[in-house]
Every structure is written in C-alpha cells, then in structure tokens.
Amino acid sequence: MNMPEPLLSVDFEVFGKVQGVFFTKYLKEMSEHLGLNGWCKNTKQGTICGKIQGPKTGIDHMVVWLTTTGSPGSQIERCNLTNWQTLAKPELKGFSIRF
C-alpha cells in the first residue's frame, strides 16, 4: 500500500533583482503547474515574500525554482525558507498574488 505524499507548508522570501521582472506572475504560473496553493507579494524592501503549500515533490521543485531559477530577467541573491510545517490538509486554496 502506498503512503500518501506528505503535504508541506513553507514561508519564503526571495532577495535580489526580483521586482519589475514579472517574478510574481511566473511564480503563480509555476505554482499552479505544480498543483501548489499559496500566495506571494512584493515587499517595500524590494523582495518577494509568500507561502506555498502542497505535496512534498511540488514543494521541493518550487524551492529549487525560488532559489536558483526565478523569472527571466531576475537575479536571485538568496531565498530564506522558514516555518516548515507538515499539514493534515491544505489550509489555502489556489494561488494568489497579493497587493
């Protein structure tokens, strides 16, 4: 019998040249493609922050994207990942860009 994949939740903040390069748009599209829920937004400090939730394999893929790839034209310096949690069920539905 296969065990269901764990559902994870993690908060993130991406530093570097990440605003004005459609980072949030690409992040939303990538999250939807991977079946992840969550949100993201630009901060006044010039970073992108948010929360992603979903199956571990999708989260793992998104963590790589957030730390190394990003949107075309972005230059990621670093990504802080905090508040890792295992969830019994998703707390968020869909993926949104907040303002």
Defining traits:
single chain, 99 residues, alpha+beta, 2 helices, 5 strands, 26% helix
Write the SSE topology:
Blueprint: E1 7-17, H1 23-34, E2 37-42, E3 48-55, H2 56-69, E4 75-87, E5 95-97
Parallel strand pairs: 2-5
Antiparallel strand pairs: 1-3, 1-4, 2-3
Helix pairs in contact: 1-2
Pfam families: Acylphosphatase (PF00708)
Family: Belongs to the acylphosphatase family.
EC number: 3.6.1.7
Summarize the structure.
The mean pLDDT is 96. This protein has 99 residues and is an alpha+beta fold.
Q: Return Rg in Å.
A: 13 Å
Q: Give the class from helix and strand content and strand pairing.
A: alpha+beta
The tally of beta strands, per DSSP, is 5
Helix-strand pattern, N to C? EHEEHEE
Q: How far is it from the N-terminal to the C-terminal residue, by CA?
A: 44 Å
For the biggest sheet, the summary is: 5 strands, mixed
Lateral strand order in the biggest sheet: 4-1-3-2-5
Question: What characteristic shape results from the CA principal axes?
Answer: elongated
- As a percent range, the share of strand residues is 35-45%
